[in-house]
Amino acid sequence: MKVTESVYYVQNPFSRPGYFTSTTIILGKTIALIDVGTQESAEESIFPYLRRLGRGPEEISLVILTHGHSDHCGSAATIARQTDAKIACHRLDVPLVENPKRQAELLHKRFPDQFTPPKSDPFEATKVNTVLDDGSLIELDGRILEVVHT
Q: CA quadruple 45, 51, 53, 57: dihedral positive or negative?
């Protein structure tokens, strides 16, 4: 869905019927993504959407993760491997992005009846290149985004 001339919103399929995760695409000289859905989202929805816009995945230079849950950062490793994109997230979420089992362990600890520790990683781990803090500024083709940690 087009939000402005350079900002688009993509709904990524999710494992539960009726649910989805979202990715915000910011177009400029390069492409920045905010959240990247599940592990399948890059290939199933994000890359095809970029191609429909006449752009390519190889143009992605930055992935900003709002937090380290698998439905928001699941495709980060795929995107990092297939592009020159840098991965950015808040310092408190770096351990979740770089060690996917950590998320599942924390959820199981808080909600033992609802979350069981997975037998395998819920998504592929990836290295975080840029650590963000509250007040961090991100420059995107003349736009300045400010991180607000909530």
A: positive
Enter the tokens of residue 52. Answer: 């429909």
Instruction: Name 26's bridge partners.
Output: 7, 32
Q: Nearest-CA neighbor of 83 among 33, 148, 150?
A: 33
Average pLDDT, integer, range 86-100: 95
The full length of the chain comes to 150
Which pair of structure tokens corresponds to residue 86?
A: 């840098």
The DSSP code for 123 is S
Q: Which two tokens stand for residue 55?
A: 């752009």
Instruction: Provide the token pair at 54.
Output: 């006449």
**12, 20 in Cβ contact below 8 A?**
yes
| DSSP letter assigned to residue 2 | B
* Nearest alpha-carbon partner for 92 in 112, 111, 68, 108: 68
Is residue 95 classed as helix, strand or coil in its secondary structure?
Answer: helix
Query: Which pTM value belongs to this model?
Result: 0.90
Specify the 3-state DSSP secondary structure of 100. helix
The mean-pLDDT minimum among 42-56, 91-105, 135-149 falls in 91-105
